[in-house]
Task: structure prediction
Amino acid sequence: MRRRWAARLSLAAGVAAPVVLLVFGGLASLVLMAVGWAGLALTAAGVWWMLTHTGRIRVLAGLLVVAVPLAVLVLYATAGLLWDVLLSLGLWALAVSAGRAALVEDPSPAVPERPAQRAERPFLIMNPRSGGGKVGKFRLAERARALGAEVVVLDPARPQDVAELACRAVRGGADLLGVAGGDGTQALVAGVAVEHGLPFMVISAGTRNHFALDLGLDRKDPATCLEALTDGVELRVDLGYIRAGGPAERSAERVFVNSASFGVYAEVVQSPAYRDDKVRTILEMLPDLLAHDSGARLSVRAGASALDGPQAVLVSNNPYQRGDSAGLGRRERLDSGELGVLSIEVANAAEAAELLLHGGQGRGLTAVTAREVVVDAAAPVIPVGVDGEALMLSTPVRCRLASGALRVRVPRHRPGVPRGTPPMDWRRVRQLALTMGRAAAGHGAA
Result:
């Protein structure tokens, strides 16, 4: 019933949006509507030209990005239709929001929970600099020790090998490993936990906490994660592995809990200037990278799919959602048994505009899933971002997924994984409203 009425509301608001303009502005409003869409496309093209050029062209593109929306608003105001246009846009936004809500199907089953015995000798590693100092702010070390855990707080002034610390703890009898820190540190210690068959505990004390989000943990108050020490359950989730070199090379595999990125982003974060001035570094490097004038040209094999020359590739531990405002920040499941692959290849301003106008859906974006992904290039080594860590790996680079490899200890009571909404599909919304309406009418007649 909820989905039916949401679909009907979407259709009604979608029809009302242009009707408002026609009623108050007449046929001339149709011309103004076309001008608005053309302005949006031109603005998107301007953004593309800003990113792919330098010097005078970039300045002119920046002026275009500012001037076009202002010109469109002035045109609407001069025609006396500004408030009518804003009302029409509000109705259109309502139509899209209600339509996407109608497309949300019944939630898929959550990762099964397993009963877990309380760990006798838990060992936790905490990074005091992660998340702007959340370890100290929430007194995580003191609280964990009060619950019986051995805690090592990393020294910011002295780099330490967290994997070796975890291995040493295992040799000393630890029966649970955990991390309060960023996703890169989480991945390194998770690999040790899998290697020794131990449960792993995530404390959401990082900056973004993507892994914690997708485990359904509380990211606002990382102290609640410590409840897993006393009242926890166990989840079995997948784990990604990345290895450099061909079959003849026996390089060590590295774990990733979130993703491995290739192409533009990986090239940019390798720059020594990136840490000091992120925006300037990105603006300086993007033109050559997007035009393939610098950086290695990538080729990707993902299962039966082959991708040639993408500008950016993201290989993730389970697919990321594409349809909601969180975009690439959310995965509904961590136990699908598949790597997600997102590839972006935008050749010109028209394709950039298409991506913007279609809400991230277009020819420039390819999404597939696979159990194994191989990323190759003509260069002997390529930059790779693994859970936010900048690496240089020899080609080809191979990614694989280990299904259910990681035992994660989480609190029994936790917020849960937020559900996203699918991309807008007017055909499906119409079918949903009309089909369910006919079904309801049939039941009433019976």
About this structure: Residues 184 and 218 are 19 Å apart (CA to CA). The chain has a mean pLDDT of 84. DSSP finds 13 helices and 17 strands in the chain. Residues 28-52 form the longest helix (25 residues).
